[in-house]
Every structure is written in C-alpha cells, then in structure tokens.
Amino acid sequence: MSKNEVDRGKRRFLIAATTAVGGVAAVGVAIPFLSSWLPSQRAKAAGAPIEVDISKIEPGMLLNVAWRGKPVWIVNRTKEMMDLLGKHDGKLTDPKSEVPQQPEYCRNATRSRQEHANILVAVGVCTHLGCSPSEKLKAGSSEGMSSDWPGGFFCPCHGSRFDLAARVFNGSPAPINLLIPPHKYLSASRILVGDDSKGAR
Ligand code: FES
User: Fold this and answer.
1) What are 85-94's pLDDT values in tens digits?
2) Quick check: 159 pLDDT over 80?
3) Least packed by Cβ within 10 Å: which of 32, 35, 68, 145?
C-alpha cells in the first residue's frame, strides 16, 4: 500500500466530513454509490441519535449520514444483493456475527432488523485502523475488486474487504466486521440511528 493510496483513503473521508450541512432532520436524496452527509440539528450534540428519512433510497442505493462524527451507511439492498449474502460464508472471518459488533436483533444472516431485512445500517469505519471504506455495491468493476467479488465495501488504506452485510473477508487486515449501530424504525420510512430503546425519541 503506497502513501498515495493511504492519503487517498483519508482524503475521501475528509471530503465527506467537510461537506456536512445542517438541517432540521436528516432527510437526504440517495445517490447511487455517492455520499451525502445530512446530519440533523440534534446530531450536532455529541451522542445524539439522528432521524433519517429512508423513503428516497431506491433499491441498490446507499445513503451516507453522520452519527457521532462517523459515517453511517444505510443501504437498500436488492433481492439480488440479499441472495448473494449466503454464498460466501466460508470466506468470511465471522460469518455468524459471533463478535458483538451489532445489537442482538441484528445478529443474523443479514445483520439487519428482520422487519426490514433488506436495509443495512452500518458504521462506515474500517475496523483495522479507522479509514472509511468505499462502497462497491456492484460486482467486478472498480478499484480493489476482482471478477469474483460479490460486492460490498472496500477499504483502500490496506485492502480490507467487506460484504453487503458489512462482514469482513478472510485475509483482510481488519480483524472484525463493521459495527452495526443501535437503531430502530419510527415508521416504514424513518429510522432513528443511535437509539433503540422502546418509545424513546
Ligand atoms: S484501515 Fe482499513 S484496511 Fe487498514
């Protein structure tokens, strides 16, 4: 890994971090494979949960929001993406999410709440040294991806690879899966990231 590649990874994170804009609520337009940072006013307070409108995240798209100063990815996985998840368990470091990197309700094959199993909510910070991986939601086409890559997330700093459930592949420098933050659904189209207590807002 050259210094330029490391710098590129850091730069991606910094660019995203410095384009944050305020708003009453975290309502964003999902753009395929691009990041948009739309933290709520409450997110400006350390540790505050953020409310996210997921109604505009089309299948196959990713929305990037900020929570506790970190990127949080919300991915609307297609059926095709979901079908891929069960096909490479043997290549994963922790396919069954034994390491507590997720709330108990996301300790399952999709690492998501089962009432909205297609929606992945994950903290986009590499568990190796903290770079922000890139979205590689489609197979085989770009940096760090081989033709048998099932899609997911790729960390350019040292080459860690994660699948579409944010599970790390064997041989990656990252030792464990990406973190799934506490979250809950306020409605079919709104998620609260950072709080999963009953009735709390
Ligand atoms: S920080 Fe991601 S691979 Fe090293």
Assistant:
1) 999 999 999 9
2) yes
3) 32
Which residue CA neighbors atom 3 of ligand 1 most closely?
Answer: 158
Pairing of strands 26-27, 50-53: parallel
Q: For residue 122, list its beta bridge partners.
A: 73
Q: Ligand 1: which of 129, 168, 177 to mutate, most ligand atoms within 8 Å of CB?
A: 129
Pocket around ligand 1 at a 6 A CB cut-off: 126, 128-131, 155, 157-160, 173-174
Type of residue numbered 25:
A
> Strand, coil or helix: what is 51?
strand
Four-CA torsion 130, 177, 86, 79, nearest 10 degrees: -50
Question: Ligand 1: which residue has its CA nearest to atom 1?
Answer: 129
